[in-house]
Design brief:
By secondary structure, the protein is mainly alpha-helical. The chain has helices at about 5-15, 45-80, 85-150. The chain starts with a helix and ends with a helix. The mean pLDDT is about 80.
């Protein structure tokens, strides 16, 4: 492509559309009349509790099953090694990798469960603070209304 052709194509493209920024996005959803605005993130304690419980159950159940799989695999690997099978060393390697991977999953599920428990407690404290602040404002308003004779 020659330089002149490049310049001509750039000029044509500039003439066809503005140089403003265009963001690709989904069109806004029509309002359902439910009163919630698009884009607001809402979560309740029931949702958090369900996620935390699921993470705790996964941690507990996987920990038990994972330990059984590890012990069985290592026992089989030992038996194969003593009988001179090369597969024994390979199975032992797989069992070692299994230990690393299962520990990572157990750590992650414990972190999720613990973090959600912490979040639940922190938000409960925030709710107490906010309700205390709002009730004190209502008390002040009532006092001002009494003075005005309303």
């Amino acid at each position: 492509m020659a330089w002149d052709e490049w310049e001509r194509l750039k000029a044509e493209a500039a003439d066809q559309r503005s140089t403003g920024m265009q963001l690709n996005q989904l069109p806004p959803e029509p309002s359902s009349g439910g009163g919630s605005q698009q884009g607001d993130l809402a979560v309740n304690q029931t949702d958090l509790a369900a996620i935390g419980d699921a993470a705790f159950e996964l941690h507990r159940d996987f920990g038990r099953v994972s330990e059984h799989a590890r012990a069985t695999s290592q026992k089989a690997a030992g038996g194969l090694k003593t009988q001179g099978f090369a597969l024994g060393s390979a199975l032992d390697h797989v069992a070692s990798r299994w230990i690393d991977q299962s520990r990572s999953l157990l750590d992650a599920t414990a972190h999720i469960s613990n973090h959600l428990d912490f979040t639940k407690g922190a938000h409960a404290g925030d709710e107490v603070h906010i309700s205390g602040t709002i009730s004190s404002i209502a008390t002040l308003d009532a006092g001002f209304n009494e003075r005005k004779g309303a």
